[in-house]
Amino acid sequence: MVNATSLDVEYQFGFQDVPERFGHNFNAFHRVGLHRGLRTMAEDLGVEILLGKEVIDLDCGDGLLNFRDGACAKHDLIVVADGIRSELVKTVSDLDVVPQKIGKSVFRGLIPMQRLRDDPLIWSQLQGEPSGFYSTMHNGVFSMTYPCSSDEIMNVAVFHSTRPGHENDEGWSSPATKDEVLSVLDSEALHPFWRAVVNAAPSDEDFKCFPISLREPIPRYNNGGAILIGDAAHPFEPTHAQVGCLGIEDAQSLATLFRNTSSASTDIARSCQLYNDLRLPRGNVT
């Protein structure tokens, strides 16, 4: 964390001991790259991914799925992973929870690192610094940068009070412009570094606006042979940057718990309950 005006370091937290403490490096992934890698791994194992199969109804007890196109399917285990606005969370958890916008949004952009290296104002601050988070707070606006994709792309996030015209934004794809991002960084007291980073984006298309929503924790992640994982189970604010991590933890927990589980419905339900007992405290508290 740096001072908004001078860029003097106010707080620094190192990750050098992360491998020793937690057994692995600290990594930041471009979400598209993470999705692509997971999909490749699944398909290499023979998993067939069917797109455009929207589920409209789920019977947890019988393992029945009804699709928008009129088709239906029956499975021993059903994993629900349809995000914070899950249409099936009530069916699984018995609690009707709806995400609520909190009047805050985040402008997000991905900028090629070379464009930052080419700007003397920007690179004079970043050169020689270890890869990590670089952030500041000013006038209620929280700005953050961190590299991903092997330090070839810089993620830029500007958290702010939702601006006029963005009240009805949904998801990560709502368009924004560089001028809109710059408008929340217009204080003369703010170091010009932050505006320079935004201006380094090749075009307006590099920025999106995402509304921040909160959802109440749910009492359970399982029902019969159906379970919730990822944001459908435990949505996070984007400031945590942990949704992918927790989703992978969920999946690995399933792999471990179901390694020796038979196809008998009672065994599946028992493993689903174990998953819930292990993951519910972790997801809801984190």
From TrEMBL:
The keyword Disulfide bond does not apply. Pfam families: FAD_binding_3. Transmembrane segments: none annotated. Residues 76-257 form the FAD-binding domain. Keywords: FAD, Flavoprotein, Monooxygenase, Oxidoreductase. One of its GO terms (molecular function) is FAD binding. InterPro entries: FAD-bd, FAD-dep_Monooxygenase_BioMet, FAD/NAD-bd_sf. It comes from the Eukaryota. Belongs to the paxM FAD-dependent monooxygenase family. PANTHER family: FAD-BINDING DOMAIN-CONTAINING PROTEIN-RELATED, MONOOXYGENASE. This is FAD-binding domain-containing protein.
